[in-house]
Amino acid sequence: MSGKKKEIEDIDPAVVKNYLSRNPDFLIENPELFAVLTPPNRSTDDEIVDFQTLMIEKIKSNLEDLKFSQGHLIDTSRNNLTTQVQVHEAVLSLLEINDISQLGHIVTHDWADNLHIDVIRICFEDENEVGIPSLLEISKLPKGRVDEYLGKDDIIQLRGDVEVSEDIFGPAKSLIKAEALVKLPATDNNPPGILAFGSRDADMFYPGQGTELLRFLGKSFHKCLIQWLKRQN
Question: Mean pLDDT of all residues in the chain?
Answer without folding.
Answer: 82
